[in-house]
Structure formats: C-alpha cells, structure tokens
UniProtKB/TrEMBL annotation:
Keywords noted in UniProt: Membrane, Transmembrane, Transmembrane helix
Gene3D superfamilies: P-loop containing nucleotide triphosphate hydrolases
Name of this protein: Lipopolysaccharide biosynthesis protein
UniProt cross-references to SUPFAM superfamilies, sorted A to Z: P-loop containing nucleoside triphosphate hydrolases
Lineage: Bacteria, Bacillati, Actinomycetota, Actinomycetes, Kitasatosporales
Organism: Streptomyces corchorusii (Streptomyces chibaensis)
PANTHER family documented for this protein: CAPSULAR EXOPOLYSACCHARIDE FAMILY, TYROSINE-PROTEIN KINASE
Membrane-spanning residues: 30-47, 231-252
Coiled-coil stretches: none
Presence of keyword rRNA-binding: no
Length: 528
C-alpha cells in the first residue's frame, strides 16, 4: 500500500510563489536601486556607443608559400592565415594606414583601438572592421587598413625578390668566372654555359613574378546606421538588466535578512501561535491607552487580543500574565496597558503591575484617577500604593508601580520580587517588565505567572532573539502563550525613539520591589 495522496498539495505552490514575491517586494528600495543602476548603465552605453559607425573591407590573400619557385603544395596550405592576421594587426600596418588617412605616425595606436580583423575558417579572406564616430571616417579607416596591409605584403614580397635575385646573380658571376678559366675542354665549357643559361632564366622568372599580396574583394562603404542599437533599445536593455540586478539583490537581501518580517517567520522561530498583529499606528506613543479611549484598527486588535487570551490562556477569565519583549523598541507597555483595559472592559478586576525599576515611567504616562474617586469597595481589594487608571468607556483598572520598600539592596543581587500579598485570587494581573534578553528580572517573574506574552517589533526583531527568548522562558519553567507582533507607528516621535532607546528614570537608591498577588510562598531577588 502506498501512502495517502494529498490532493491539495498542488495548491501550495501558488502560496509559496506569493510568499516569495512578498519577500522580494519587502525590499522595493533595493529593486529600485538596481533599476536605476541599469538605466544609468544603458544611458552611459548610449552616450559612448550610440553614435559609432562600423565599415568593413575584405582582402583576398594570394596563396603562395614560395612565389619564386615551383612547389607541389595545395593552394589552401600555401599561406598561414593566422600569421597574416597578426601581421595585419601590427603597428607597421597601422602606421601605413595613418599615412594613407593623412595623419601622423603617432596616431597609429589610436587607430588600432577601432580596428578589428577576423578570418573565417578555411578561408583566405581577411576582414577589416573599422569603427569611428562618423560613417565616412569608418569607411576611410577600413579601406586604409586594407590598402596598408596589401602595401606591406607587397613590400615584403619585393624584398624577397631582391634577396633571391642577388643570390642568383652571385651564382651567375661564379659560373662566368669558371667559364673564362676553362678554355680547352669543350664539354666543360658547354656545361658551364648550360648552367649559366639556367641561372639567367631563373633571374628572369623571379623578376617576372607578381609581387602583389592580394586583392581587395570588398571596399568599405559609409554605413547608414550606427553599429550598435539606438538609445531606446539600449535604455530598454539597461532597464531589463537593472530589473534583473534589483531582483537578485533583493533575493540576497531577503536570504541574508535575520529580522522577523511576517507572522509565519515568528511562528517558525518560536513554535508558538501568533496572538495578534498590530497594524501600523499614527501619532505619538506617549498616549498609551487606546482601548476605551480611541478607535481604529490598532485598538480593535488589542481588544481582540484580550478576548483570545481570556478564552484560551486564562482559566475562567482570571490569571497572571507577563508581557515582555526580547529587547527594547517593542510596544510592550502599550500592549500591557491596553490588554488591562480590554480585560477590564470584559468585566474582570484587573491589576497592572510595572516591574521595571524605573517606577515613575509608566504611571506618569497613564490617565490616573484622583484618590477621592475611589469607591468604598475599591479600597480593600487594591494593594498598597496602587492607583486607579481611567480607561474611558472600558472602565477602570488598578496600576501598581514597583516602588521601594525600604529594604536594603543585596550586594551582587539581581532584582524583581520581594513578597507576594495574599487575598487576590479573583484578580487578573498583567505584569510588564524590562526586556528579557537585557535583564534577568523577567526570568524570576515567569515562574510566578500563568503565562507569558512576548511582544516583538515586526521588521526590527531578529529571529535569533526570538529563539533565545523561547529557550529562556522554557528553561525557567514558564509558559509561553504566544507572540504579539507590532508593525510600529508612523509618528515622528516613534522614529526618534527607534533611533535612540528610551531612557527610564533611575530608581531610588533603595531596592525596587514588585508586589504580585497571590501565593503562599515568597521569592526574593535583589538587584545590585
């Protein structure tokens, strides 16, 4: 029996393709940079090569390995075209071409830059391609190099004729001298005369041969169009090349990016559900309460987060929650405050505890009610030093800051919890503390709460930080309920806070203490 056949596997491919496209489109700036570079390259190529013209001339090289003797060699093997191609590209030929074009010998090197010589296989035709700024100059250059090469080859042939003639004439002089000395032997005289006649015929044959190196079978003409495509084609080519470069750079950036860019990446790094994805907000984050006081998608998402935690992570609607982030920069306080307001809106009795040593930072930013606003039923249930927070239409909840209790600091200690008062089993407690990977306070609190909600910035938090946070929470015995991803805010102050981490006021010299409702035993951790 074979395994089960998944009929819906083929529908995963479009999803993977869309996911890949989304990852590439996250780096639109890199793609735009690649397109700009491609267009600039096309424009540069347009300016440098769009107005160049190429003319072609062809020369048939005559086949003769030894033009002054009879040889039984095939015509195709009587000349080395590779050698002739190198000679045609030599400086001597370039100097002759410069003179034919009416230029100084020093311009020969510049002319060689625009010359290209080719030879097809099994062919005795040399092709001269000359590129210049104008059509007429291109034609003149192609013809000049063809004529210069033929003149150079003719000069070499004539030099060979002169060398061969001098050699035969030297032999004739030797035979004539011997003939004068030999006057008595008629047979010897006739032999010398026959040899002399042969040598003179040889001189005549050498001088009668054609010393031309070849023939021009095609003369260069002024081209009607540039040798490269026009500027529209070059710009289109640059655009296509830039787009390909931008996609490649975006893919590399996406492959090397270690930050969390989507809910799937956060879920894979933590192996826990994503409880909520906060949409981008507007304005400053100084005004923390949104549930019950503001509208919009962000407030509704925070309210939905409370409903989900109330139905899954908190038994019977009560419990202890720790809201913490891996590092600074996430909206930890905003999530904790609005989670408390949303739970209060659901009818729960909520206590928000600020476990950060900077005790005045959170309470100073909340809309606190005056002490005379308390009802007689509030006093017995509220911890000492707590204040009531006005959550607008959501109601109100208590806020307790981790203040000092007068106990001296322990040398070398680490700090968070001193004692837990009893009598608050029915209260929902939301605790917010310092970043998990920067301070160990949260690890002490994870053992005393029912669940931990991790808050991370979308596009700012690294996946390695999420994995480390998961390992620390799991190793300390805590329960990670899930993660909340924050897409950030568009306000000016938010951008400034991201560039420079917020600085909370220093606590007093005495040990800061957080009081949490609830158990019989106590956990005391001091901070040096």
């Amino acid at each position: 029996m074979t395994g089960p056949i998944h009929l819906y596997d083929r529908y995963d491919e479009p999803d993977q393709l869309r996911d890949q496209l989304r990852r590439l489109l996250r780096h639109r700036g890199v793609i735009a940079l690649g397109i700009v570079l491609g267009l600039l390259g096309g424009a540069a190529l347009t300016l440098s090569r769009a107005h160049t013209y190429t003319s072609t001339s062809e020369v048939l090289v005559r086949s003769t390995a030894d033009p002054f003797g009879t040889v039984s060699v095939a015509a195709d093997n009587q000349v080395s075209m590779a050698t002739e191609q190198q000679i045609a590209a030599s400086t001597a030929v370039a100097v002759r071409a410069a003179r034919l074009m009416g230029q100084a010998d020093g311009k020969a090197t510049a002319l060689e830059d625009g010359l290209r010589i080719t030879n097809q296989a099994k062919s005795q035709v040399l092709r001269f391609e000359f590129t210049a700024r104008t059509p007429k100059r291109a034609a003149r250059g192609a013809n000049a190099f063809a004529e210069a090469y033929l003149a150079d080859r003719k000069a070499r042939n004539q030099a060979a004729v002169q060398r061969a003639t001098r050699g035969v004439e030297q032999q004739i002089k030797t035979v004539e001298a011997a003939q004068k000395k030999e006057t008595e032997d008629d047979d010897a005289t006739k032999a010398l005369q026959s040899q002399l006649d042969t040598l003179r015929k040889r001189v005549a044959d050498i001088n009668s041969r054609d010393t031309d190196g070849g023939d021009v079978v095609r003369r260069g003409e002024a081209p009607a169009r540039p040798s490269v495509p026009g500027w529209p084609a070059l710009l289109a080519l640059g655009l296509a090349g830039g787009l390909g470069l931008g996609i490649l750079l975006a893919w590399l950036r996406s492959a090397l990016d270690t930050r969390v860019r989507s809910a799937d990446e956060a879920r894979a790094a933590l192996r826990t559900p994503v409880l909520g994805l906060l949409p981008p907000g507007h304005g400053e984050d100084d005004d923390l309460p949104a549930v019950g006081r503001q509208g919009g998608d962000r407030a509704e998402m925070l309210r939905a987060l409370a409903y989900r935690l109330r139905g899954t992570g908190l038994p019977a609607g009560t419990g202890r929650l720790l809201v913490v982030s891996p590092r600074r920069g996430a909206a930890t306080e905003e999530v904790a405050v609005n989670l408390a307001a949303a739970l209060a809106e659901c009818g729960d009795e909520v206590l928000l505890v600020d476990a950060d040593p900077g005790t005045a930072a959170l309470t100073a930013r909340l809309p606190l009610l005056p002490d005379d606003a308390r009802t007689p039923g509030d006093a017995p249930s509220l911890p000492d030093g707590s204040r009531l927070v006005d959550a607008g239409t959501a109601g109100r909840f208590a806020c307790c800051a981790g203040g000092s209790t007068g106990s001296p600091a322990r040398t070398g200690g680490a700090a968070a919890v001193h004692r837990l008062p009893a009598g608050s089993d029915s209260r929902t407690t939301v605790v917010v503390t310092r970043p998990l990977l920067e301070h160990a306070d949260a690890l002490a609190l994870t053992q005393r709460v029912d669940g931990v909600v991790l808050v991370a910035g979308l596009g700012t938090t690294r996946r390695d930080d999420l994995r480390r946070a998961h390992e620390l929470i799991d190793g300390s015995g805590g329960t990670l309920l899930g993660i909340v991803l924050d897409a950030g805010r568009r306000g000016r102050l938010r951008a400034v806070l991201r560039r420079r981490p917020a600085h909370r006021p220093e606590a007093e010299t005495l040990t800061p203490v957080v009081e949490l409702p609830a158990q019989d035993d106590t956990l005391s951790v001091s901070r040096g």
